[in-house]
Amino acid sequence: MSTPPPPEFRRMVDRRQLTARPVTLSANEEERAALARRFGLVAIHALEAEVSLEAEGEEVSASGRLHADIVQSCAISGDDLPVTVDEPIAFRFVPERRIDAEEVELEEEDLDEIPYAGTAFDLGEAVAQSLALAIDPYATGPDAERAREEAGLSGEAASGPLAAALAALKKT
After folding, report:
1. What is the dihedral of CA 145, 138, 48, 87, to 10 degrees?
2. I need a labelling partner for 116 at 20 to 30 A (CA). Which of 38, 62, 149, 156 fits?
3. Other Cβ atoms closer than 10 A to 65
């Protein structure tokens, strides 16, 4: 079994050294290029986050704002599509725990937990994962309709049994 490569945007934070000041992260050119490859983007021109960290025992709550300027491919035409991501982020770092059960039931508050080992966690990777979740995989650009028409995916050509079924679902 091979070892996975290290995260492209690693920013380790030791929970024992937290302060009241927010942590500002900014990815450099090499990190942005590596993340763009990982997320299937044309480019990431900027990736920044400001995150406040608050320790609650061994757990650390993180909240802040993520800002990124990315270029992704239009889901229809394949053209470059510049997109600005600017949204709040929130998650919680929790100590790793061993799970012996075959099936695990997750509660809503468990879904944004990121396990860590020892006393340090990777805030950069958490921000990178937040960016990945913010990317719209079906984003379309201004030429999407033209590309649909050229491919015969609109108008009469787009009508068929599946299109009729989808139209019926939209009406309900």
Report:
1. 100
2. 38
3. 14
Give the pLDDT confidence score for residue 3 in this predicted structure: 77
Give how far the C-alpha of residue 103 lies from the chain's centroid of Cα atoms, to the nearest Å: 26
Reading the block at residue 60, the tokens are 């650390």
**Cα 170 to Cα 172: distance, rounded to the nearest angstrom:** 6
∠ CA 129-33-1 to the nearest 5 degrees? 60
Residue with tokens 């995260």: 7
pLDDT higher than 50, residue 49: yes
129-162, pLDDT tens digit by residue? 999 999 999 888 877 677 667 777 665 545 556 6
Q: How big is the chain by its Cα radius of gyration, in Å?
A: 21
Token pair belonging to 147: 């590309």
Token readout for 28 is 């450099």
Q: Residue 10: helix, strand or coil by DSSP?
A: coil
How many whole angstroms separate alpha carbon 64 and alpha carbon 24? 10
Query: On the CB side of 135, how many CA atoms lie within 13 Å of its CA?
Result: 27
Residue whose pair of structure tokens reads 């079906």 in the numeric block: 138
107 pLDDT above the threshold of 50: yes
